[in-house]
Amino acid sequence: RSAEDFVRELHPYAEQAAKELGVEPKVILAQAALETGWGRSVIKNSNGSNSFNLFNIKADKSWQGKQAQVPTLEFEKGVAKKVNAGFRSYPSFKESFQDYVNFIKSNPRYGDALKQAGNPANYLRELQQAGYATDPKYADKIMSIYHSEAMSGFRSDVMAMAPDQNKASL
Predict the structure, then answer these.
(1) What is the tens place of the pLDDT at every residue in 27-58?
(2) Which residue among the candidates 5, 9, 60, 74 is catalytic per the annotation?
(3) Residue 164: active-site member
């Protein structure tokens, strides 16, 4: 699947999630793109089926749903090490986006990120500082995807559609 296909397929869910969080859909899509390599590396369940976990949200004690156990890289004091961890598993990408919204909104540690929702770089930096990811370059990596060709190309598609939509509503 191409980056463009990834963005096109997931944009409707990102739109909905973005509205609920107050961020741009592009920010959420860029985060999902980093987490899954543009959807090419979504975690698999033990039976090989798709977990649909676009944001690599771990299954903590509070998670009641299905989970997938996989090896992952974690950074501890700047050093990468491999550990096994349980990740949430969903029936579809739509549920992955819905859970991402609930996860961010229900965790008080992400309150500062939500206060920065209008500024993509600050939102992502606050997510990183609150411990969303252990990679010290997490926010920077997402911002480079946010500014990437795949995202800018998509943005111009949306802009190109706008005049037709305006005509239809007249």
Answers:
(1) 999 999 999 999 999 999 999 999 999 999 99
(2) 74
(3) no
